[in-house]
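Reopening this one. Same input as before:
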Amino acid sequence: QVQLVESGGGLVQPGGSLRLSCAASGFTSNDYAIGWFRQAPGKEREAVSCISSSSVGINWYVGSVRGRFSVSRDNSKNTVYLQMNSLKPEDTGIYYCARVISGRACEQSHWSSPVQYGSWGQGTQVTVSS
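Same output, byte for byte:
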């Protein structure tokens, strides 16, 4: 049974940092591209980042987080991380990780499309506020 469980969210002041974890079970996470999405209240779900399999080594970020967020894997723990630095109030939302339906690579043309992902976690809340 494929399962993704996010953790690490919380309340942080602007300029602070958080590290989100996405623990995978029921499959080998390094065999798939894994995406991070977020959804703010009243807004559509937005793609944040995508990490390819270690053998591919291509990652993508939405422009608003590039240079502040970093995605990584710990294959020994079957876990993907999203390190978020210099957080801003507009980063507030529920953060989800998701597994692509198939493939090891985050494709430039469609990594940000939710329809490419077949399994989702339950989400973790991130609130950036003073």
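So the earlier flakiness isn't reproducible anymore. For the record, The first strand starts at residue 3 and ends at 7.
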